[in-house]
Amino acid sequence: MQLRKIFKLVSEDTMKFQSEIAASLMLIGLAIVGQACAPASTSKPTSSLPPPAADSSRSAGAGEGQRGPTKDSTVGKSSLDDLKTGKAPVTPPSSPLKDVFFGFDRSDLSADARSVLRANADWLKTNPAVRVEIEGHCDERGTSEYNLALGAKRAQAAREYLATLGVASQRLSTTSYGEEIPLCKEANESCWKQNRRARFVITPTRPAS
Amino acid sequence: MMRKFLLCFSFAILAAHANTARAAVTGEIVGQGGQKFPIAVSPLKILSAVSSDVARLSTGIADAMIHDLELSGWFKVLDRGAYIEDAQKTGITLGAFDCKDWSAIGAEGLVKGGFSVQGEDITVELRLFDVYQNKERVGKRYTGRVRDFRRIAHKFVDEIINQFTGIPGVFNTRIAYVSNSGGRFKEIYVSHLDGSEKFQVTDNHTINLSPSWSSDGRSILYSSFKERNQTLYLFELFSGKEVKFTPRGSGKYLSGKLSPDGQSVVATLESAGNSNLYLLDRSGNVIRRLTEAAGIEVSPSWSPDGKQIIFVSDRSGSPQLYIFDLSDGKTRRLTYNGNYNTSPEWSPKGDRIVYTGRVGSRFAIFSISVDGGEARKLTSESADSEDPTWSPDGRFIAFASNRAGRYHLYVMQASGENQRRLTGSGGDDTKPSWSPRLD
Fold it and tell me: What ipTM was reported for this prediction?
């Protein structure tokens, strides 16, 4: 609970607090991963910020050892985590894995979606220790249960395409949030199209189950 | 976090007396001239009480009955401001008041009653009179806790409707639904149709969806992300006990419904992007896999005899309704119109299916015969209406609609007439599930 409070403070407030909090976190000896001190996903990334203390070895399980060429291979927050902490489920612009988008009631991949997935696959292949949970999302239209199933199809479509591009499928898990955690909350197409997406969240490395 | 349903459901009906003139007519309720039946509901007479709250109870019980009578769509409740007699100065039995005071204002039916309060307990006596024939139609006496006074009112309205139609009303029932009124999370609530006795079933600060009732009204099956991966939970309202359904492997249970006999659950299991229907026992063990399609098979609902299941499949390329027969394992397609038909529920009478269909860019409630044919559109496409659920007598349908901005729950007659709003929380209220008849 105390931890959640601190997270909230980080998300709501300024960098001035961050160092204090980071220090206090170390003091109380919490094994905390880097994103605790990363800027809130709703805030704009600032180049002057030092890169997050991405230390994947700290959260690493067996088999970890590879380091990617970028410092971005931090464990991400799922959209459910974002909901719990009151943040928008935004994929940060700095994320190496970009969202892909779908048509209404569709789970097939457009040319644009395939292009994004190829870039995601390239990054995943150069960072072979990274595991990803692919989230399927839908816009608010239609009914909840159908959209949960549709989101699952979207996540699976992305997963299968990444697998055909050479990403080991055991590195990829899927989940669906249906229409339940929208990124954009207005009732218009420009908003809905942002919500019909597959999102890629880097998960803590763990031995394959 | 689990909560216990602390409310006591049981009521003692001490005496059903003076019930001599049973209604001779059944069927439609119409007043003279085919209009809604004009009825007056008098404030209750305070018979004996030492509580300071009696004035509130006198009108509160009457108000709860008025709410139900108007919700039914069959009655025109006459405005209290027009009443001539003083309820506290006249009697509540035939001959102890003047029927002309009521016929003069246009009432054909009259509800009168009285109550006494002792500590936490209340005794309420209610009578329905036929003003034109100068007859008592039914009288009942109820005892219960003072705080449950509305439930007494609901039970008597159910009796009034029984007198007129031969089938009791459904106002002593509850609706389970999803609401984000407490903040950004979606939690499950249960309340009476008038919003009273609201009870929060889940409080886990995640997403909880698709509540549905067991046929004995004692348990709620729902899906939740509270343990990260979505699955089903069977929650017992009275004991607070809960059973988690753990899917095999990486599968996830998206939704489910308890069978009419309460012994099994039909559930949607999603695995590797495909959603299929499974029959489970009450502990969540798989009894039988029902569908083998690649794609989406969701939102199952049982026929009242438990022999068939209506569900949504996208096997044709768009979501449509299909009926699965448990005896021969065969499936037949029910809907052919429109390219988006979802969230079906089988009527308690067994003859119709109510569902959500897309009309242009909007969603509306439809009903269709189980034999197919033309569907009836029951709501306007000037706003979205979704997730219909039948009342236990099949005469009403509750649903969620955003016609007033945010999503609220509404009730209408099965014909689509008399659409009335039930809820008005600050958030979105969605996915209603109407309970069976409760004690």
Answer: 0.90
